[in-house]
Amino acid sequence: MSADPSTRRGIPDATVARLPEYLRALHSFSDDGIASVSSEDLAVATGVGSAKVRKDLSYLGSYGIRGVGYDVDHLAYQISFALGLTHEWAVAIVGMGNLGRALAAYRGFATKGFRIVGLLDQDTRLHGQVVAGLPVRPMADLAGLVGEGLAIGVIATPAESAQDVCDQLVSVGVRSILNFAPTVLATPPSVVVRKVDLSTELQILAFHEQRKAGRAVTLAEVSS
């Protein structure tokens, strides 16, 4: 995998995390036939303050034009380039349970520059089954997929299997991993792991719902 353009440009991680939101908003503006937008427009569309929008976009070398704003298509290209989306990335999903199958069937990957090249599972009973047009393959096929350009591994296994799967991905040269398993993975510094924990996100939402409803309680009240 070539060096990430965002790394070469020294873009902070917090800014990188917001770039996909800007890109989504820009695509929406483009679909509506809007040719230029202001930082305030992007702020409203993404929920990010306009000053922070301007600061984030300055890392891309894009400052807009006073009284005109940002060219929608050009800014979308700049963000796509920074995110490494100006070419296609090959992805393999490991774990063909309900979550893995749902991810395999998600059509949004193709439109965002990601191509599913392999579906894998350690369960031999699943090998050969066709999911979303692709056969489920054994883990032994990982090395061959890397030789064909596999760049990103998605772990959709139970927690108890995730570290073993991660180790296998790393051992064949995969350096970018998206982890849906509810566990923390141990990896070398050269490997980038992004964790998606749905239960954690729901718990955070529960906290905010409780606070909005004025139902916050003290530990003393819980214990009584």
UniProtKB/TrEMBL annotation:
One of its GO terms (biological process) is response to redox state. NAD(+) binds at G95, M96, G97, N98, L99, G100. Residues 21-60 bind DNA. Residues 85-184 form the CoA-binding domain. InterPro entries: CoA-bd (IPR003781), NAD(P)-bd_dom_sf (IPR036291), Rex_actinobacterial-type (IPR058236), Rex_DNA-bd_C_dom (IPR009718), Tscrpt_rep_Rex (IPR022876), WH-like_DNA-bd_sf (IPR036388), WH_DNA-bd_sf (IPR036390). GO terms for cellular component: cytoplasm. SMART domains: CoA_binding. NCBIfam families: PRK05472.2-1 (NF003992), PRK05472.2-2 (NF003993), PRK05472.2-3 (NF003994), PRK05472.2-4 (NF003995), PRK05472.2-5 (NF003996). Homodimer. This is Redox-sensing transcriptional repressor Rex.
